[in-house]
Amino acid sequence: MAREIDSDALRAYRDLVQTQLEKLEDELIPKLRSGQELGRMPAFGSMDGAPQARTNYTAFHEGTWNNLQAIRESLHGIITTLNDSGDLSDESDEVTANSFDSELEG
Q1: Where residue 29 falls among pLDDT bands split at 50, 70, 90?
Q2: What CA–CA distance (Å, rounded) separates 81 from 59?
Q3: Domains held by the chain: number
Q4: What is the dihedral of CA 63, 64, 67, 71, to 10 degrees?
Q5: 0.70 exceeded by pTM
Q6: Residue 50 in contact with residue 44, Cβ under 8 Å?
Q7: For 51-79, how does the pLDDT look when each residue is reduced to its tens digit (9 = 90+)?
């Protein structure tokens, strides 16, 4: 038995993923850029633990930035795959319909 793919469901999910990608790119990532709300290092002062706190903060910020970029790339990949799957499903449905019509006529 052949599997059926619901192109409309794929597109609806793609739209949901696209919304999440836009939120990430338009709201979250800009806040982490240098000079923005989450892109400025806090003032750790000059106490004994300050150098280590700066090092820890820098590593945390870099890790967060890299993780968000990886999520961004993954969301782009998901969208591309969903678009391709929907297009191939539509194309397959069209070929099947044409083949069925040809058999009826022939």
Answers
A1: very high
A2: 33
A3: 1
A4: -170
A5: yes
A6: yes
A7: 999 999 999 999 999 999 999 999 999 99
The letter for the amino acid at 61 is: H
* 92 backbone dihedrals φ, ψ, rounded to 5°: -65, -40
Q: How many CA atoms lie within 13 A of 42 on its CB side?
A: 11
Q: What is the pLDDT of residue 97?
A: 59
Closest CA to 30 of 65, 5, 73, 80: 65
Domain for residue 1, yes or no?
A: no
Radius of gyration of the chain (CA): 24
Mean pLDDT computed over every residue of the chain = 86
Six-digit token pair at 15? 């739209």
Range of the domain at 13: 7-39+51-105
